[in-house]
Amino acid sequence: EDNKKTEVVFTEEQEALVVNSWNAIKKNSGELSVKFFKRVLEIAPPAKQMFSFLRDSNVPLEENPRLKPHAMSVFLMTCESAAQLRKAGTVTVRESNLKKLGATHLKSGVKDEHFEVTKQALLDTIKEAIPEMWSTDMEKAWGEAHDQLANAIKAEMHANA
Ligand code: HEM
After folding, report:
1. What is the pLDDT of residues 84-107, one digit of tens each?
2. 108 CB within 6 A, ligand 1
3. Cβ 70 under 6 angstroms from ligand 1
4. Least confident of 75-84, 87-96, 113-122
5. What is the ipTM of this complex?
6. Is residue 67 in contact with ligand 1, taking CB distance under 6 Å?
């Protein structure tokens, strides 16, 4: 039943809201990554124990080079989801990637609720970076792209749990 994905309507305008805002902020990927993780830990302090690179580290977040890849995966994959949703009405993560994502998150003890935390951190980070561009429609577009991606990862986690 995992193949029966519900198609969502995601318009060109929504894709543009995601892509344009990403283009406006991506040059600051280092700073965005730190802000994203700070926000995740503000909302859910225990999440620190899940990430090997935070758990085993004594350096401040700002100086931890290993948090950037995860933060950027969340931003970039959400952007890609927006493009896929507009084109096909569904998110397709490459099969091998999805398998790995499902396995890694399952093994790390990630639960469905945690995706709400990273979602909020994602939205808050973008809003803070470009308050003048931010709008309810932009929030909805990023939120929808995120939720569809998160659902694909969660489905893979459940399939293996
Ligand atoms: C690892 C993406 C949400 C916790 C990874 C990796 C990627 C990724 C690409 C590394 C690749 C791999 O080993 O498979 C994403 C995306 C997310 C998401 C796109 C949401 C849309 C979450 C959430 C949590 C989480 C909600 C928990 C709060 C982790 C942990 C690792 C990981 C603990 C292993 C990192 C380590 O300790 O080295 N994620 N992730 N992720 N993710 Fe996520």
Report:
1. 999 999 998 888 899 999 999 999
2. yes
3. yes
4. 87-96
5. 0.97
6. no
